[in-house]
Specification:
This protein is mainly α. Helices cover about 65% and strands about 0% of the residues. The protein contains 27 helices and no strands. The longest helix is centred in the N-terminal third of the chain and has 36 residues. It starts with a helix and ends in a 15-residue tail after the last helix. About 15% of the residues have low confidence.
Length: about 550
């Protein structure tokens, strides 16, 4: 009887195994069929949603989704205070666009809401969104596939595809390349030889290089933040003064560490504490941990990415790494810069930090902003403050007490794009100059493009609009609602920095006994119309790379 039962159990296992194999075969065939039969439809969809409209849809959806979840969760101060709906949406937009502009104190949010904001900052950061774009290279895949099919038809001297393969076989082979890479394609069909694969103009190599770059960025994203998270947790456990601050405020240590590292690397600048980094102004070790996160996730990302590709190319993926190093512009990844440009970007970052450091120390060394700190802590604090001007926004001082000259310097730093280089890069590309199609595309400008303003013009327009919406406060409370404070707030939102001069009841011309100082941004005291305008500014700032050449039709003589 036992033998009889074991026989049927064995048959059942074989049947299940065969069924699973058939299911895998069916799914594989269905995938290949959908990939090639629906490809024209997908291409039409992707052409309809260009990169700019895709980013708008992405950040808008992210903001509304985050707002819905934040609104559904109860804040920590639900019994005493509940944020307004507009303020919750403002916070969601600020986190998704990594702007860190605040109209509500951060300690109002519960642990669950802090985790939601963490996710918004993580998926809204530039490194993550650019990595997602690399892993979704539909245009490169489509062009690669079409070129491969043309080569299979021509079978010329530059196409080493044997004649005995039918079009269906070649298409199925290409499908396998798309799924598992060129190595499998070569081993099963022997279609391409090694010399052809190593040609820099080969779309097979370009596709694999972009795929390799996507995984490099993913590893960079995870490793840097993991090291930062481990360092912050270790610091909080070793340094009792920093750990006590977190515990007294009722913030979980793990939540604080994850929130802070993600926010810093994404260049957002939010912290779970009301005072931002002011409460940690004496913890120089924490600043030393966060400074690399700021630089590696923002201004030094292109330089470090190129160095990472170079290091990995010496050990693995040599062909792909060499292609990326020599063809940075052809890859089309904004953050992979040519060698000279990446060096100049790094040098410019160091130069700006040094200029800001010297200016801040010379004007604020004995000021109230740095009062009570030792010489070493002042040096580290000023360095941390200057690094944050581009474009993270974490602060150890009350910016309203800083000298106007320093504020003007901060405004300029917030306005400059993260990859500004001090020396101009003159790009010479003979192929593009000789290509008539590219020349025609460059000359073809629509009337709408000619009416596009420069980014500085848009900032001036936004400042004027906010001065109109806040005209009553400008008249009744001129010290808090000064034009300079409004400029700092608008440029900070545009640069997705998060710096703010705040609002002080002590600076009111007419004392108000009902006024209570709060640890949120200056925009928290604005009207709803002003907040809506600042939301638009944050979106505009997050998408500013699509308007870098705006205003060229306007000539000033």
């Amino acid at each position: 009887m036992d033998n009889f039962g074991s026989y049927y159990v064995k048959k059942l296992k074989n049947l299940c195994s065969d069924s699973w194999q058939l299911t895998r075969l069916f799914l594989r065939c269905s995938y290949s069929y959908l990939l090639f039969t629906l490809n024209p439809f997908l291409i039409h969809i992707f052409h309809f949603f260009n990169p700019f409209s895709t980013r708008i849809l992405y950040f808008s959806s992210l903001s509304f989704a985050g707002f819905g979840i934040l609104n559904a969760l109860k804040p920590r101060t639900a019994a005493a205070f509940t944020p307004k709906t507009l303020d919750l949406f403002f916070t969601s937009v600020s986190a998704a666009t990594v702007s860190s502009m605040s109209t509500v104190e951060m300690e109002v949010f519960s642990n669950s809401q802090l985790l939601v904001i963490t996710v918004l900052m993580f998926v809204g950061g530039e490194v993550f969104t650019s990595m997602a774009g690399l892993h979704f290279t539909h245009k490169n895949i489509t062009r690669w596939k079409s070129e491969a099919r043309v080569e299979s038809v021509e079978s010329g001297p530059t196409s080493p595809i044997p004649a005995e393969y039918s079009f269906d076989q070649i298409d199925s082979s290409i499908a396998e390349v798309l799924e598992s890479g060129l190595t499998r394609f070569e081993s099963r069909h022997n279609v391409l030889n090694y010399s052809y694969y190593n040609n820099s103009n080969n779309t097979f190599l370009k596709y694999d290089s972009v795929k390799f770059l996507g995984f490099v960025v993913l590893g960079y994203l995870l490793v840097i933040q993991f090291l930062g998270l481990a360092s912050v947790l270790l610091y909080l456990s070793v340094v009792e003064s920093a750990g006590n601050v977190i515990r007294k405020k009722g913030i979980k240590t793990a939540t604080f560490a994850v929130f802070t590292v993600v926010s810093t690397f994404a260049s957002c600048g939010f912290l779970p504490t009301n005072e931002n980094m002011i409460v940690f102004r004496e913890n120089s070790g924490l600043m030393w941990i966060l400074i690399p996160q700021i630089l590696l996730g923002n201004t030094l990302f292109p330089s470090c990415l190129r160095f990472t590709v170079w290091v990995l190319g010496r050990k693995v993926k040599k062909a792909e790494a060499e292609f990326l190093m020599k063809n940075a512009a052809e890859v089309g990844y904004l953050h992979l810069l040519p060698g000279l440009h990446s060096v100049l970007v790094a040098a410019t970052v160091v130069g700006f930090v040094l200029v800001g450091f010297v200016m801040f120390c010379s004007l604020e060394w004995d000021s109230a902003a740095l009062a009570g700190l030792s010489g070493y802590r002042k040096v580290v604090g000023v360095l941390f403050q200057c690094v944050n001007t581009r474009h993270t926004g974490e602060t150890i001082v009350d910016l309203s007490t800083v000298a106007p000259a320093v504020l003007v310097f901060f405004v300029v730093m917030m306005y400059l794009p993260p990859y500004t280089s001090f020396l101009p890069i003159i790009k010479r590309d003979d192929d593009q100059q000789q290509n008539p199609e590219i020349i025609r595309n460059q000359k073809r400008k629509t009337s709408a493009e000619n009416l596009v303003f420069s980014q500085l013009s848009y900032i001036v327009i936004f400042i004027i609009l906010i001065c109109i919406t806040e005209r009553k406060s400008l008249k009744d409370d001129p010290i808090n609602f000064s034009v300079l404070n409004i400029i700092v707030e608008v440029v900070s939102a545009y640069g997705n920095v998060g710096f703010t001069t705040g609002y002080s009841c002590g600076r009111k011309v007419s004392p108000d006994p009902n006024c209570v100082d709060k640890w949120y941004g200056f925009s928290g005291k604005w009207s709803d119309e002003g907040k809506v305008i600042l939301i638009i500014v944050m979106f505009f700032g997050r998408l500013k790379k699509f308007n870098m050449n705006g205003g060229q039709a306007w000539k000033l003589l």
